[in-house]
TrEMBL record:
Source organism of the structure: Vulcanisaeta distributa (strain DSM 14429 / JCM 11212 / NBRC 100878 / IC-017)
GO molecular function: thioredoxin-disulfide reductase (NADPH) activity
Keywords associated with the record: Disulfide bond, FAD, Flavoprotein, Oxidoreductase, Redox-active center
SUPFAM superfamilies noted in UniProt: FAD/NAD(P)-binding domain (SSF51905)
Single biological process term from Gene Ontology: removal of superoxide radicals
Entry protein name: Thioredoxin reductase
Pfam families: Pyr_redox_2
Alphabetical list of Gene3D superfamilies matching this protein: FAD/NAD(P)-binding domain (3.50.50.60)
Record-annotated FAD/NAD(P)-binding domain positions: 25-315
Lineage top rank: taxon: Archaea
GO cellular component terms given for this protein: cytoplasm
Amino acid sequence: MSSAFKISVTKMDFGVSEELTSKVYDTVIIGGGPAGMSAAIYAARYGLSTIIITEEIGGQVAKSGWVENYLGYTRIMGPDLVNKFEEHVKYYNVPIIIDSVENVERDGDLFKVYTLNGDEYTARTVIIAVGEKKRKLNVPGEDTYNGRGVSYCAPCDAPLFKGKVVAVVGGGDSAASAALLLTEYATKVYIIHRRNQLRAQKYYQDLLLKNPKIEIIWNTVVKELQGDKLLRKAILQRVDTKEVFELPLDGLFVEIGAEPPVELFKRIGLALSQDGYIKVNHLMETSIPGIYAAGDCVDLTPRDFRQIVVAAGQGALAAYSAYNYIIRKYGFNRR
Ligand code: NAP
């Protein structure tokens, strides 16, 4: 089984030392997924003083099942890959702060990065790699049974459903990957999808269709979740016939995609695409000089190609651009 629960970092989830907040960083990286961690490794190797501020370690990868397309690993669980990333970042002594960034403001030539915990960091450049937040179903019962049958993280919770009946909602790669992982534990795995065609890669579709434990419930949406102390059933509705029916369940995994934190981007004043992603050029430069962005939160990444390798590559490029900005502006003797 994966080491999903072993993630450990130089993290400070309460009270950050003054030493960390009083410095002027060459770059503050917001986000601790593959884009942010890759940016940190490149920035540190460029000799930039670097810090990562992130709500969680690993982003979507930490919630992913088997990863089979990241260079160097034939097959590795998402959380295990995150542990590898983190080990790599730690090697370069980049601190990782667990906190949520509320705003970034220009302060003369520098930037101030404000967090939910009330801390303030000063930076010459900022790299935004916050990814996206998982969508919720927004149906009655979802919050009540969150952690009591409803889950948003298959690798974290799949082992809890050994011998049980579960469902995954969604038709993309995340739903497919979660469903396949769940077949290693559950006796039956339903996929509830609102259309009659999956969005997931063909590779996944083939695996789903030949797995005897998986049954796809097409053209159907979740209307409500019900149970006692634990989730017991989902109330479903067919999109075409409007027929309402019950599905007895022990677990329901919500995998219906994710959205970028648009409000944060607006507060910072970044130029955004119509659907709320940060506009960047090929060097990951945003509309604000000195602020770079990378990974799932940028408009450059195709919506249907959110790959770890793409995020990691963009993170490296963002660090490269931050380095060039700093050298151009401050030269080599800025400390
Ligand atoms: P996604 O591709 O956006 O798919 C979301 C799925 O959820 C779609 O099938 C969508 O239905 C459905 N959906 C959306 N909102 C819904 C709602 N309110 N109610 C019911 N169903 C809803 O998201 P994802 O699967 O999380 O993938 C995100 C990105 O990560 C993609 O680029 C994907 O390729 C990548 N990813 C890659 C891998 C891998 O390569 N191993 C693994 C995981 C994710 P419709 O189809 O009708 O729109």
